[in-house]
Structure formats: C-alpha cells, structure tokens
Amino acid sequence: MKYKFLNDYSEGCHPAILEKLTQTNYAQQSGYGNDEYSESAVEKIRLACRNEALDVHFVSGGTQANLLVMAAFLKPYESVIAAESGHINTHEAGAIEATGHKIEYSPAPDGKLTPELMAKHLLKFPKYHTVKPRLVYISNSTEYGTLYTRRELEALYTFCRENELLLFIDGARLAMALTAGENDLTLEDLSRLCDAFYIGGTKCGALFGEAIVISNPALQTDFRYHVKQRGAMLAKGRSLGIQFDVLFTDHLIFDLAARANRLGAKLAEAFRQLGLAFLTPPQTNQVFPVLPDTVIQKLAEQYEFFEWQVIDENSKALRLVVSWATPEEAVDRFIQDLKACYPL
Amino acid sequence: MKYKFLNDYSEGCHPAILEKLTQTNYAQQSGYGNDEYSESAVEKIRLACRNEALDVHFVSGGTQANLLVMAAFLKPYESVIAAESGHINTHEAGAIEATGHKIEYSPAPDGKLTPELMAKHLLKFPKYHTVKPRLVYISNSTEYGTLYTRRELEALYTFCRENELLLFIDGARLAMALTAGENDLTLEDLSRLCDAFYIGGTKCGALFGEAIVISNPALQTDFRYHVKQRGAMLAKGRSLGIQFDVLFTDHLIFDLAARANRLGAKLAEAFRQLGLAFLTPPQTNQVFPVLPDTVIQKLAEQYEFFEWQVIDENSKALRLVVSWATPEEAVDRFIQDLKACYPL
Amino acid sequence: MKYKFLNDYSEGCHPAILEKLTQTNYAQQSGYGNDEYSESAVEKIRLACRNEALDVHFVSGGTQANLLVMAAFLKPYESVIAAESGHINTHEAGAIEATGHKIEYSPAPDGKLTPELMAKHLLKFPKYHTVKPRLVYISNSTEYGTLYTRRELEALYTFCRENELLLFIDGARLAMALTAGENDLTLEDLSRLCDAFYIGGTKCGALFGEAIVISNPALQTDFRYHVKQRGAMLAKGRSLGIQFDVLFTDHLIFDLAARANRLGAKLAEAFRQLGLAFLTPPQTNQVFPVLPDTVIQKLAEQYEFFEWQVIDENSKALRLVVSWATPEEAVDRFIQDLKACYPL
Amino acid sequence: MKYKFLNDYSEGCHPAILEKLTQTNYAQQSGYGNDEYSESAVEKIRLACRNEALDVHFVSGGTQANLLVMAAFLKPYESVIAAESGHINTHEAGAIEATGHKIEYSPAPDGKLTPELMAKHLLKFPKYHTVKPRLVYISNSTEYGTLYTRRELEALYTFCRENELLLFIDGARLAMALTAGENDLTLEDLSRLCDAFYIGGTKCGALFGEAIVISNPALQTDFRYHVKQRGAMLAKGRSLGIQFDVLFTDHLIFDLAARANRLGAKLAEAFRQLGLAFLTPPQTNQVFPVLPDTVIQKLAEQYEFFEWQVIDENSKALRLVVSWATPEEAVDRFIQDLKACYPL
C-alpha cells in the first residue's frame, strides 16, 4: 500500500472526538443544532474570537459552507470576486453559480487577491448591464498553501469597506494558516477583518464539519433558514457540535494544525536542501515542489500525491499534503527516499 | 429531565457504528465516497435489493436527499406531485422550490397519495401555461406513521408509468415501514416499484446519513455532479460508508426499526385499551393518539412530545415517537403514567 | 369566422399607439428605457398616482412583471401567499418557483384573499423548517373578474403591515378594476395601499407592456439590475414608453377599460334577464355565466369562449371576455343569439 | 442635437412593419404565438434556411433568447464556454448564472473562439468536482464586429460534435454577418453548422424581437414551456410574428443589414485613408478605430459614440455603429468632420 500525501482528509478524526461521541451517545438532546454540545462549541468559538456577538453555524462541508454564505448574503444580480484558483471557482462543480451568482476572477499566481486585482472588477460599464460585485472571497491558507499577512488582510478589508464589498474568508485550512511559522494573524484579528469566515474541521481533525462564523450583524438574520433550505441542517446536530466542542477544547485544532505545518516545513526543507524550486512558497501543510519527471516516477512507486501542474517537458509541480494524522515516520521515510534519488 | 418522545433523532447512533469508526480511524482512504467502506456498503444495499444495477449515493440528510433528487431528475418546468403533508411540502423550508420546482399537492388525511389524487393534477390547461407534472413524491412510512401496501404501491407505479411520471419514495423511515406488522413489501419489491428512493439512516440508528438508491438507469448518469454541486459530497465519505456498512450488516437497520415499531405498538395498544382514538391508524414507530387536554397537561410534566393538531376545544392529537434507542422501561413508565390519569 | 370572446388580447392595439410609433419612428433615442417617451410616461403615471416618489419600470408581459417582483423583493427562504386561483399559481408555468420561491395558497371561490385566509399561513412551525411568508399577491380585478373594495384592500394592507408582509397587486386588468361600476378605489388610493403593483397594458389597449410601480422605497434600489438580468429590458425601451405615454394621455387606458366593462355589464344583464346564474358576480369585463350544455353547443357554432368549469352533468360555467376592441355589435349579436336559444 | 453612432437600436423600426401592424390591427387572432402571422413568419424562416424541421420561437430580446436557450439546454452542472468578450459574459447582468450555469471563458482579442481555446476547458480534473462543459456560445458577427468564416465555423462545430458539446450562435447581428463583404456563409450553412441560433430583429429593423431557431431535434421538446416560464411568451405574439413576417419578406432584413454594412465600410475606409489603426478588423456595421484623444474630443462635440478602450495615454479605440436607419448623409458628414481634424 502506497502512503498517501494526497490531501488532508485521508484519515478519520482525532480520537478525542470518537471518545466524546461514545460518551454522550445516549443522552437525549434537541435536534437541529439546539443541543448542549453545539451550544458549548459556539461559546468556545466566540471566546476564541473574543467576540460574544458572533453568529456561529455548523455545517458538513466546505462547498456547503461556501454556497450557503453566497446564497444568503447576495442579491440575485450581485457577484463574487475571487482569485482564479479560488476553490469556489475551480472545484465546487459550479455550486455558487447554481445559487445564481457569477464569480468574477483574476489570475493570481500565489492564490492571493490584492486590492489592485479587485479594483479592476469595479470598473465595468454600463450600469445595470453588468453584474454588481458585492462579495470578495479569499482562502486562508490559500489553495496554493500560501498565507495572508495581517497587513495584507487589513488592506483588503479596508478596500472592501470603501467599496461596499463584503469580505468572506474560506477557512478550510484556517487552523493551518493561523499556526504557520510566518503567520502574524490571530483568530481574533481575523474575525474582525472580515464580514464572515468559516473554520474548517474536515481538514483539521474532524470527521466532517465546518463552523461558519458571521461577524457582520446585518448578515446574521435568519441564516438558519438558509441552512435548512440548502439541506445543510443535520437532524442530529450534536454530531457537529461535539466535534467542534472537542476541537476547541485546549486548542486541539490549533495543535493539530501546527503539527501538520511542522511536518510540511520538514518536507519543504528537504526539497530546499536539494536545490529544488517551488511553485509557490511553502508556508503551511501543503507543499508544491517542482521535480524532474524521473524523480516523480520513482517516488510514485511508494507514495501517492497530485501532479499539480506541468512546468516544462521534463518536470512538474507536485502537491504534497500533510494531515493531522500523518506519522512523522512517513515524512521521514519520504525524505529519505527523495534524497536517494539524488544525485540524479 | 423529562423523557423525550419528540422524534427518532434525539440520541446518537448504534454503538457498532462508533466501534467501526474507531477501528478504521487511521486507515488512509480515498475521499469523496471512493473509500472501501462506502464500496462495501453499496454492495450490501444492492444485495439487499437483489439488484446489482442500482446506483447508490450516501448523503447527510433527508432534505439534502430530496432536493438532490428533484434538482437532478427534473427539467425547469416540471413539477412534483405530493401529499399536502409530504415533508418536502411542509418542513424543508422551501428546499424544492429553491431548486426551481413547484410542488403540486393534494390533501390526504392519512398522508398517502392515490392514483385518483394524482390524476387531478394532470388535467390542467392550457398546455405550456401550467407546469408539467413529472415526479411523484411519497413517503413510506408517511409523515403520519402510515404504510403503503404492495397493492397500493403497484397501483401508484402503474399509474406513474402510464402517465410518464417518475416515482420517488422518501424513505426517512423506510426501515420502519418494511418491518411494520402490517407491511407486505420487501426491500426488493420496493426497489422495483419506483424509479428511486432513499433509505434513511438518521432515524434508524445512524449518526447521520441517507442512502439514495436510483434504479431507473436513465436517471443515474452524472448524479455525482449534482451531489458535489449541492454541497452534499463529504470529503471523508468514509464516515457515511462506514455507517451504512454497519447498518446493512446482519440486518441491523431492520432489527432496530422492528424494535422501535414494537414499542410503538405497545404504546398504541395502551391508548386503545383506554378507548382513545387516533388521528391516523398506528402502524409504525410514530403514534398520533387523541387525548383530552387535561391528560396532556399531566403527561407533559414528565414527558416531551409534539402537540400535533387541535381536535376540538378539549382535546388534541399528539405525536409520540419511539426511536431505536428508546429504553423499553421509558415506554412502560409512560404507559403507567398514562393509565394513572384514568378514569378522569 | 367565429367571433372570439376568449380573452382581452385577441386584437392589436389602440390606433393612437400606432400613430405615435409612426410619428416618432426616426427620432434617435437612448436605449433601455432612457428615452424621452419612457420618461414622459413615467411622469404621467406618477401624476395619475399623485406620488412623485414612485419607481416605474416598463416590461413586456404579466408573467415577466410578476417573476421580476418576486425575484427582486424576496430572500431565498421567503414565500408568497396567494389565492389558489392566482395567476402566478396556475398559469405561469411555475415562473415564481423557478426563481426559487414557494407559493402558499388558499382556496378562494371568488378569487379574493382575506386577512383570515392569510393568517393561517402564518401559523406554521417549527421555525426555520418551514418557509417564511413575506409577500402577499393579489389580483385586481381578479382572475374571476371580481373586485376588491377600498375597505377590503385597507384591511389586507393593515394585516400585511402588522405581520411584516409586503403587498403586491397584479394589475393585468387594473384599469378594468378601477373603472368598474362597483369600484370605490382610485389609482391614488391603490398606490398607497400596497408596496408595489403593476398596471397592465397588454389587456387594455397596448400591443404589449406592463408598468411595474414600486411605492415602498426600500424595494426600489437597483431594480433595473433585476430587469436586465431576467431578460426584461428592451433595447428599444421606447416601444414601451410610447405605449404608456399614449395610454396615460387623456385617460385613454381608463376610457378603454370603462368601455369594456360597460359591454361586459351588457352581457351580464342579458344572462341575468334569462334567469341564469354566475360562477362569480360579474363586475368587470370578464363574465362567468352558468349555461346548459345545449345552449353552449348552440353558441359555440358562432362564437369562441372558454368552458371554464363543469358545474353539473348538464351545465358549465363559461368565461366570456370583452376587450377594448370588441365592437358593440358583436355583443349585441351574441345577446340576440343567446336569447334565441330560450325558451329551451 | 448630436448624431448618435452609439448603437444599432437608437431608432424605431422599418416602416413596413408599422404598416403591417396597422393593417392587421383589428383582426382577432389566437394568443401566445398561435396567430397566423407568427405561423407565416416561421415558415419563411424555415424556407430561408431550407429546413422544414426547424423549431422557431420569437422572443423579445437578446438576453432573453440567450438565457432561455441555456436554461433549456443545460443540466444544472453543465457549463457554457464563451469568449471573454461574449455578450453573455459581460453585458447581461449575470443572466446565465442566474439560471444556474457557469460561463467558462477564454480571452479572444478579436472576439472569436477557436477549437484550441475551447480545448483547454475540457482538461479539468478531478471529475465531478468541476463543472462539465456542454454548450459553446459564439456570436456572429461578434461583439467586436468580426466574422466567422465557413471554414472556422465548420472547425468549431466538428470539434463540438467530437466532444459532445452543443454549439449555439448568438445572432443579434446575424443579418450583418451574413451580408458582410468578407462573409462566405449562407443562412442555410449556418443553420446546419450549429445546434441552435437566434436571428436578431432588434438590431436589424424590428422594434424588438429575436427568432430562436433550434435545429437539433433533441433540443426542441417542450421549449415553449421554458418560454412561458421565463416570462418571454407575449400574449399578443402577433406583434413578434408580424415583424418577422415583414423582415423575411423579399429579404428585407438582409437588405437593411447590407446597407448598414456598406455604410460601416465607408466609415472604415475614411479612417484607413487617414492611416488610422483599428482595434479589430472592420468587417460589418461596427467599427472600432483608434483615434487620438484630441480628435475624439473634437468629434464628440457633434457625435455620440462609445469610448471602448484606452489604448495609450493619448488615444482610445472608439466604437461607431451604423444602423439600418442611419442616413448616408450622417455618415458623410461625420467623415467630413473627421477629415477636417487632419492634419493634426
């Protein structure tokens, strides 16, 4: 069996979650998220953000979180601005458009939007004949494993407020972003520097589940109607509440993310030592090294990973992902096998 | 703490599921339902239906299953025929209409559609100005706890095929239907007598999850695109596969349902012995007795249940639901407390 | 050739419209409704409503007007309350549901909603699981040719404001309503007693065209984006502006409607004199007499009309419609032919 | 009053249309396109395409035609491939996305798609996570006034059929395309080289109206339901039928287009003689010359036109459009005024 560095959702969940599910199994609870575990989890997230006024909703997956937010926040003629590589633009099977909204995108080699990239979408004419940009979608960390700095996020949010745009952060890997070595944002900062975001559980130790956090009060009204209407409200909402309650106990989610980042850095360092380049600067648990096809072929005998992009006729950029559950030995073994390919 | 007869999703899941989740937790698996547990579960469902050609998809909840099916099977101008009490018509927050389709409904006091009720929706004129009925939605067991007999289902499906209508069965409580005392349908029968159906897990021992089963080959194409687009494809599809794999091992799901039905019958018998009437004939794990308000008030001190419908100024129909996890002692205690209210 | 009493859109348009189209044909104008004729027509409508703050938009047809209003005014989970016979519920091919919204309807034999009928739609539970009623749709005159009195409309609008509901009036035949003998509403009254309405041109002398009038300022924002997005913004908006400019010059639209009502009353009187009953009280240009099948058969040799509803095995209710263009002789001839059938 | 070269919809319609509207005004006709004029117009279009099996539907505008076709032809997860400059991608206020479909676009400086540009949209992965391209949208003539040759169109359609893609042609200015000097396509060719197209009336002498022509039989079923549902079915369909009946009598539509092209060529020749460049090669009635800002400023005192694109700090590309109704004197005067600006 080859070891998979394919993604951060190849394993189950942190054992503490299974324990808590077992321990609470027979307690009768109200349905649809009105259980005591969900209430506790909401409180813990508010506390972590130091903001009691946050609206928190647990849903099953990232595409679901994204489509819910867009469907709820936008009027029919309003559009979303995103990086070309934004998950909603590439790998959600048209989920956003299926709710009726255009995504307007800009090429962004490192997966990050800037005020300049956003500005060009505001210059359309004539009025009423084009869509009206209303929500800016960014991912942190991005689909390329990169990070927004505090300064960058502040600049984006300032631009948004100056232009009546909402800022939404896809946090499928938010825990990785906030525990990365180069990160200078806290969860509290982040929750103040956007109108809404979600905290990914699926890729950070949960079996499934994302926590949508809405800070802009105008966007909080009746959000649960949307959750129900889009089929995202679990009867046994406890199964989501329990997971986030565990993940937000004693910083578990951040510890798991920090560990994945550390192993990602270990992988990156190995590539670096061999003088290899990266498609994008490695900052989190996703690493995109550029390797010769001969090396890729060799490694593929023992490991699974995505061949992300053809660089030239002899090399490709790979995507290697470390998860919360990746054993350090697997990383070490990979590095050893990599080094064994050199000198070519 | 009052004991809840509110619904069949107040508890967690059957412990065998938690065991299997724990046991498989660290095995690396492919994402999005391509894991070995999901594949095994699909095979077990096909085997239980004695039909290898069935298309099976696991999703998180009933509203999600319903909206996916309607969005996938219908053209924009096609409508759904349902009983007025159909879950899609009452308690899914307009999920079907949100995918663009009208629900055309008929009052049906026992929650069951008939060819006669369906026929009147086919008489509209003029062509092109009305919607075009295309899919018939029924629930088995129904929202009122009642059952379709084999003869009734055959009549419905014959009518459907004669009128170019698709038949879809909402099986949120299908296991209860198929194990009810008065039932004469097998899973195999049922899977032949409709175009698609879903097998509910959430209300029959799973933490969450429903299995959509598509028998009509013309409807199978590209269904996974819909699943992804509507945010219903879990990255860790294993969490659904494992649950159905366990539920379809040694008839577990049907054993759990049979037990719930048996306790439902025990409750019903107690009401009957006191000479009380029912809103609808008790056939499964949902019982709708008509009680004097004074008795209701007394019982409400110890138990939670829905006051379903006002019957007259002195009495109401309640909904009492037994779940897979309801202890028999809770039922016995309730019966004792009920009897203690009589003679009034 | 049989004479048609089928509807009020069997002929072209009032000749004054063709004259104005001809006379202005070569004048270069801005597109998309920014032409001087549209601007003049908007002013005339505001003047007729004695309200300079009204937002007015010209579109091509009634279904278009209705779907635009619902798509623009409602959030995804909000529903529309209507009479069962409401045009949006029966003869718009699911146009409202195609914009994502459920229509909740009540049977109303005379086609008119009441606060009581509306109230029952507000009692649903539990919250978040049902749709949330938000807009009340009525037609004046109704699909059955009946009228709302000022008192009735006031009661509806009071109920709406007390319950955070919007009131929208489908005015496909508004000119007929406001010029009916039993009417006690002015256009000014009506425009104050709802949040939005449309004034039908198609059925009152225009070639096509309806004027959507939005009085609630909160609903006016960006409406033109919706018009464009739904394909309802004509490049040569002048063709709509010119028609409404002519129709609102010297009360033309109301004169045409009054004439149609007068001929409708003449028809109704003839039925009444023969002792015939009506499906609904004849108040405008639509008359629904109940006739024996033998008489219907005889009349059908010379005239076209809809057989609206089977009353019993020997009789049916017809729908007879008089248009702005129906010659009085056609009505007189029909009455003569009708009387010739009696005594049977 | 400045003369407008802004677009081809600044005037009314060809006088023969007004005459026919007047002449037929009082004839009673069936509604919704079942009138004799619409039937005659359909026959004339079939004859012009030499194909009796074509399905023809008249609607009011181009955005309406486009959104109808996409909504009718596509399943929810299927996308549209277009040039970045495609009208649906830029100037339809998100109408296509509002029907639920993603537009995938490629930059194309001359507004024309090629098999190469289309091919890159077919390479996405993984399956089910991306949208599935299904319909290719092109405009002829394009938004940049350019043309597809027969060879180019054949290559596109061959590519489409090889890849299970549908080809749809936006013919807002189809008459101009087919009468351009460099055109080598007949209407018959074109109708064979795609699955559906529309023939624009609004920009070629009609007051409003486009004729959707569906050649692929599999796409013809029930199209009228879509027309009704999207609010595009006029009660007085005669007003569309009469216009197309007139436009397709004695080649009127093509004569009008040829004349507009001839005046466009006259304009282009004047720019060429002054040594001016063009944004795209002038081939039809839209001309995009690059002019110094000083000249633009001078011309803007007498004429209206769009400043289409900034070329450098001293010059811009204009869009000048000649309509069927532009007097030759207006063109001559413009050329004279242009020449008077030189030498600078």
SSE map:
4 copies of one chain form a homotetramer.
Chain A: E1 3-4, H1 15-23, H2 36-48, E2 55-59, H3 62-73, E3 78-83, H4 87-90, H5 95-98, E4 103-106, H6 115-119, E5 132-139, H7 150-162, E6 166-170, H8 174-178, H9 187-192, E7 196-200, E8 210-214, H10 223-229, H11 238-247, H12 252-273, E9 286-287, E10 290-292, H13 293-299, E11 303-304, E12 306-312, E13 315-321, H14 328-339
Parallel strand pairs in A: 1-11, 3-4, 3-5, 5-6, 6-7
Antiparallel strand pairs in A: 2-8, 7-8, 9-13, 10-13, 12-13
Helix pairs in contact in A: 1-11, 2-11, 12-14
Relevant terms:
homotetramer, 344 residues, alpha/beta, 7-stranded mixed sheet, 4-stranded antiparallel sheet, 38% helix, globular
Briefly characterize the structure.
Chain A has 344 residues and is of the alpha/beta class.
Q: What report would you give on this structure?
A:
Four copies of one chain form a homotetramer. With 344 residues, the first copy, chain A, is α/β, with parallel strands linked by helices. Chain A has 14 helices and 13 strands. Chain A has helices spanning 15-23, 36-48, 62-73, 87-90, 95-98, 115-119, 150-162, 174-178, 187-192, 223-229, 238-247, 252-273, 293-299, 328-339; strands at residues 3-4, 55-59, 78-83, 103-106, 132-139, 166-170, 196-200, 210-214, 286-287, 290-292, 303-304, 306-312, 315-321. Chain A has a seven-stranded mixed beta sheet with strand order 2-8-7-6-5-3-4, with helices on both faces. In chain A, strands 9, 10, 12 and 13 form a four-stranded antiparallel beta sheet that branches. In chain A, a hairpin with a 2-residue loop joins strand 12 (306-312) and strand 13 (315-321). The first copy, chain A, is globular, with a radius of gyration of 21 Å. Chain A starts with a strand and ends in a 5-residue tail after the last helix. The model of chain A has no long low-confidence stretch (mean pLDDT 98). Chains A and D meet through loops of A and loops of D.
